[in-house]
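User: Some background: our group keeps a shared notebook of sequences we're curious about, and every so often someone picks one and asks for a predicted structure to add to the entry. Today it's my turn. The entry only has the sequence so far, pasted here. Could you supply the structure so I can complete it?
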Amino acid sequence: MQGKYIIFSAPSGAGKTTIINKLLEFPELKLEFSISATTRIQRINEIDGRDYYFLSIKDFKEKISKNDLIEWEEVYKNTFYGTLKSEPERIWNKGKNVTFDVDVKGGLNLKKVFGQNALAIFIEPPSMKVLATRLRDRGTDVDDKIQQRLAKAKYEMSFKLQFDVAIINDVLENTIKQAYEIILEFIKK
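Assistant: Of course. Here's the predicted structure to add to the notebook entry:
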């Protein structure tokens, strides 16, 4: 069985993970989260194999050389993110649609690979000021890292028109409703 691919991309802090987690609660969408691999440091509340597959840089580079990844990107210096080829198969075996939470370049790469079977959604913050507040309020990064994420966000925003749809995440409930309706229509095709 092969289902559909739902790709979410956004600048860090725009709310894509929160939106995905809410959408996973709707059984009629038959969504399951594709767990990304990363070399970044595991946060306190994260669980390996649930939130990410946390790999060493050496292990990640080995997966690259063995062609075990659908896509990958060095998002920050020595901080890699990627999608293991085994993830869609794992999800399809459950009769579900694959849902990705990836950076902008990863999202566009996945869309190229999966073509018409994929829906690429860009989640946009209401403004850079709101994005900065969200990044500070979540309390997971020091100020230097927040500034780095904001600089990258400006760059990532330039790619939004390459996605199938862009949704401004201003009021979370409205954003979830809009994403739900778009996904439901797509998976019915």
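Suggested note for the entry: The CA atoms of residues 126 and 171 lie 9 Å apart. The longest helix spans residues 172-188.
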